[in-house]
């Protein structure tokens, strides 16, 4: 969120709360990349947030209506969303600490899933452990 906060400090506090509601993985990644190109762009973020929110709502309606009719594996939907997120994420890997964090997260995920298939705690463990490597490497580099 710190990467986005510079672009929102000029907005009223109530408006910032509204914008905060729109933060999700996709709008965050797209907006931080755009901010790096052109500088703070709250309207771009708002457009991305609204687009993803409306898409999520419509997809939820379709999923609730047709979820028992369509086999997601048959259409590759079980893989499409993780791959899309990974594609968005890769463009934000711009330094060694971020790269090392990504590699550790991947190795931990693969290892934990191999040792404990369908473990519900893998995402929690990886989400806590891997970022500490990035933090350590970032501070070590200062």
Walk me through what this model shows.
There is one protein chain. The protein is mainly alpha-helical and 142 residues long. The chain has 2 domains: 92 residues, no CATH class; 49 residues, no CATH class. The chain has 7 helices and no strands. Helix 3 packs antiparallel against helix 4 and helix 6 runs antiparallel to helix 7. The longest helix is centred in the middle third of the chain and has 25 residues. It starts with a helix and ends with a helix. 6% of the residues are buried.
Characteristic terms for this protein:
142 residues, mainly alpha, 2 domains, 7 helices, 74% helix, 0% strand
SSE layout:
Layout: H1 2-5, H2 13-21, H3 25-38, H4 42-66, H5 77-90, H6 96-115, H7 122-140
Roughly what fraction of the amino acids lie in strands?
Answer: under 5%
Helices, by number, come to 7
Shape: flat
The CA-CA distance between the termini, in Å, is 21 Å
The biggest sheet, with number of strands, parallel, antiparallel or mixed sense and barrel status, is: none
Compute the number of strand runs. 0
Give the fraction of residues assigned to helices: over 70%
Q: What's the mean pLDDT score?
A: 83
The low-confidence runs, each spanning 5 or more residues with pLDDT under 50, are none
* Element-level helix/strand string: HHHHHHH
Cα-atom Rg, whole angstroms?
18 Å
By helix and strand content, what is the structural category?
mainly alpha
Q: What's the domain count? A: 2
């Amino acid at each position: 969120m710190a990467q986005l906060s510079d672009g929102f400090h000029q907005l009223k506090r109530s408006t910032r709360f509204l914008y905060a509601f729109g933060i999700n993985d996709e709008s965050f990644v797209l907006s931080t990349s755009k901010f790096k190109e052109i500088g703070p762009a709250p309207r771009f973020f708002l457009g991305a947030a609204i687009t993803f929110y409306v898409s999520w709502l419509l997809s939820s309606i379709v999923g609730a209506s047709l979820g028992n009719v369509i086999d997601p594996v048959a259409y590759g939907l079980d893989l499409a969303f993780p791959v899309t997120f990974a594609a968005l994420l890769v463009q934000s890997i711009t330094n060694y600490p971020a790269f090392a964090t990504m590699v550790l997260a991947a190795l931990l995920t693969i290892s934990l899933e191999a040792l404990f298939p369908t473990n519900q705690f893998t995402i929690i463990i990886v989400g806590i452990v891997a970022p500490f490597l990035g933090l350590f490497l970032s501070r070590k580099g200062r």
